[in-house]
Amino acid sequence: MTSTQIQAVHVVGGGLAGSEAAWQLAKSGLAVVLHEMRPLQSTPVHKTDGYAELVCSNSFRSDDHEHNAVGLLHEEMRRLGSLIMRAADANQVPAGGALAVDRDGFSAAVSSALSTHPLITLERGEIVTPPDDWNNVIIATGPLTSPALATAIATRTGEQQLAFFDAIAPIVHRDSIDLTQAWFQSRYDKAGPGGSGADYINCPLSREQYELFVRELIAGDKTSFHEWEASTPYFDGCLPIEVMAERGLETLRHGPMKPFGLTNPHQPGTKPYAVVQLRQDNKLGTLFNMVGFQTKLKHGEQVRIFRSIPGLQGAEFARLGGLHRNTFLNSPKLLDGTLRFKANLQWRFAGQITGCEGYVESAAVGLLAGRFAAAERYGERIVPPPATTAHGALLTHITGGHIETIDSSPSSFQPMNVNFGLFPPLHEKPDFDRHSKLGRSTAKALARKNALTRRALTHLESWIAGELPAAAAE
Fold first, then answer.
1. Which three-class secondary structure state does DSSP give residue 278?
2. Under 8 Å between Cβ of 52 and 17
3. For the residues 188-212, what does the mean pLDDT come to?
């Protein structure tokens, strides 16, 4: 190892969080060693050795930064020079109001940026535990942390690992979908970045077809759990489709199979009772994923049951759904306000292992960890972003703001997507006039969200400029 590398900041994990953390460090002028165990050691779900590989959906969710918390997080990351958002914007595919990406192009763009940066050294191989002479390290190994490293972390924490199950959705070849039964349309014809308002393929079900489908999901043969996995909870934001079906006959109709905002051109004058949507998964438009259809059904059952959906009778699957075990820390108990591990202040954690959930959230926490580590290396005072920003709200949740008292039980802390419920309340009444034509309740909701996002971006700009917004001092 060269003298430059001895002084380098080490980042363990080449997913979205680790890639973003390494980028932020290098942008600040620091040498970085980015460690990734693939392909020398694989995981249950990764298929390539690329950095920032997307293993579940290809969607970064809503890109509306005026009325949506994750869209706001997108915009904040863009203003903070995020590599992940730069690669996502350059590789977007149509997805209505969402930002979805060509997963291969996205990973290739991130990998290329990292491999060509003169201050970033890429090293392959598993890190069982960071060596003691790494005095500034970011662990961003994600929900699929290797068993050896997870054990080392658990030993340091003195408590059991906290874990939940996460499932991935099937991907279908576009040319195997029957468009004499299905049709292209975005919900309420909404056009998003790079979209046309007709970005999803919609497969309609009658009431009889829907109720039979729900029964088949519940009765279908599913992946069995190991004894030690049996009590691991699911994350509610990514429930398997059959688990949702078990919660009641109408659950799916008001979830991923809701028919609202869609009109079937093959049956004018009638509304579908339920709809399965598929979203473009690659830039060529040859692959579409089944939105919300993450599943633990066995592969043969997936093919049988999903081919009962009108329009998918001849579906050819590029990938079937699967199930994997995710691991996260009890971060409010274990991490300080700058993501340092209290038991060893040379370690920081970033990404989903901290208890954030979602691609963008994971990358955002990686961005913060990289900036915090850079400030520490330069001997600068670390000032976290205001809690009124999306980054600050997410950080506050991770580091203890979600509850007043932290205990050691796993149920005291659960993974969370960014949402407006994490933001401090507004101190002034939003202006409803802009949305008055939409009805009082809708106008109030939109005005509140718009006020939250405007406040967030104003405070973010002050934070970037080194000025402390008044709200941060309250």
1. strand
2. no
3. 89
Collapse the DSSP code of 61 into the 3-class scheme (helix H, G, I; strand E, B; otherwise coil) and give the result: strand
Q: What is the DSSP string of 115-176?
A: HH-TTEEEEES--SS--TT--SEEE--GGG--HHHHHHHHHHHTS--EEEEEEE--EEEGGG
Integer CA distances (angstroms), 88 to 63, 70, 264, 363, in order: 11, 14, 31, 12
Q: Which domains does the chain have, with CATH numbers?
A: 3-164+327-427 (3.50.50.60), 170-320 (2.40.30)
Rounded CA-CA distance 385/398 in Å is: 13
Q: pLDDT tens-digit profile of 137-174?
A: 999 998 778 888 888 888 887 656 556 676 788 999 99
Among 229-243, 244-258, 280-294, 448-462, which is the least confidently predicted range? 229-243
Tokens 């579908």 found at: 272
pLDDT digits (tens, 9 = 90+) for 296-344: 999 999 999 999 999 999 999 988 988 777 788 889 989 999 999 998 9
CB 373 within 8 A of CB 339: no
Backbone angles phi, psi at 355, to 5 degrees: 105, 15
Give the global pTM.
0.81
**Nearest-angstrom CA–CA distance, 57 and 101:** 9
DSSP summary character for residue 400 = I
Residue 385 near residue 460 (C-beta atoms within 8 A): yes
What is the pLDDT, as a whole number, of residue 302?
97
Among all chains, which residue has been given the structure tokens 């995981």?
43
